[in-house]
Design a protein that fits this description.
- By secondary structure, the protein is of the alpha/beta class.
- The protein contains 3 helices and 8 strands, in the order βαββαβαββββ.
- The strands form 2 sheets. It has a 6-stranded mixed sheet.
Length: 131
């Protein structure tokens, strides 16, 4: 389970809407499944079908979370025109089985956010609580 404060949830959705039609991406920092920090990133691929983080932004997020005695507990990205489920590429590129992978779908104007744990090529849905 991952718990996301409502203001951070709103910021993730706003980021996805602002960056559409390209995929938005970012990290969430926190502890024990509770999100406390939001790090919107630049999708350097500028693509509607995949994303890559800016390495400098990625390192800065890691450093800031560490300085606040937290860690990066989730990676998020948007699917501007497809459902909130991991693509085969998302599963293949999931590098850390210990973090949550959140996907925001904006398909057909409907907003949906889902979370998954991805390990060994398998994506398992995870409960999301907006608190």
């Amino acid at each position: 389970m991952i718990a996301i404060p409502h203001p951070i949830y709103d910021a993730i959705i706003a980021h996805a809407q602002k960056d559409a039609p390209i995929e938005a991406c970012g990290y969430l920092g926190g502890v024990n499944g509770e999100v406390k920090l939001h790090y919107p990133m630049t999708n350097v691929d500028a693509s509607a079908e995949h994303f890559s983080f800016d390495p400098q932004e990625q390192f800065a997020a890691f450093k800031e979370a560490s300085a606040q005695k937290m860690r990066l507990i989730a990676c998020y990205h948007s699917h501007p025109a497809t459902p909130a489920r991991p693509s085969q590429e998302d599963i293949r590129l999931a590098y850390d089985p210990n973090i949550s992978y959140l996907i925001v779908s904006l398909k057909d104007g409907e907003i949906s956010l889902k979370s998954f744990k991805i390990k060994g090529g398998e994506a398992t849905p995870e409960e999301v609580q907006i608190v």
